[in-house]
Design goal:
Length: about 120
């Protein structure tokens, strides 16, 4: 049996992840945050593709570095106004819509071609 003595630096990432995966409350919170984490990855990808720092993006959007950091953390639910500002800065069209029925809330973001333009679509529950 492995030594159960806590490490001075805490748990390993793998053991902590396994422990959290067994916790139903953690799994539910992770499921609910998944769309925002996908949005965060999308924002980071576009920011880097446009060679912008978080500070540059904040200035272009008329917001604070803290707001961009929160958005890129994947733990923040942005408002439509923020999404509109992001679309303007990234020279993208914001598409908001509904799809019925929701069959798989755990599905990965949808990548699709919309009107001959590459689009990143995320199911936000």
């Amino acid at each position: 049996m492995p030594d159960q003595t806590p490490s001075p630096i805490g748990r390993t990432h793998t053991s902590a992840r396994r422990r959290r995966a067994k916790d139903p409350a953690y799994a539910e919170a992770a499921r609910q945050l998944a769309p925002y984490e996908a949005l965060a990855r999308m924002v980071i990808r576009h920011r880097m593709a446009n060679e912008l720092s978080q500070e540059d993006l904040a200035k272009a959007m008329g917001t604070s570095n803290t707001a961009i950091s929160r958005l890129e953390s994947g733990q923040h639910r942005p408002g439509v106004e923020t999404l509109e500002k992001l679309a303007r800065v990234f020279k993208r069209q914001l598409i908001v819509g509904f799809a019925d029925p929701i069959e798989d809330l755990d599905a990965e973001p949808i990548r699709a071609s919309v009107a001959d333009h590459e689009a990143d679509l995320i199911a936000l529950a």
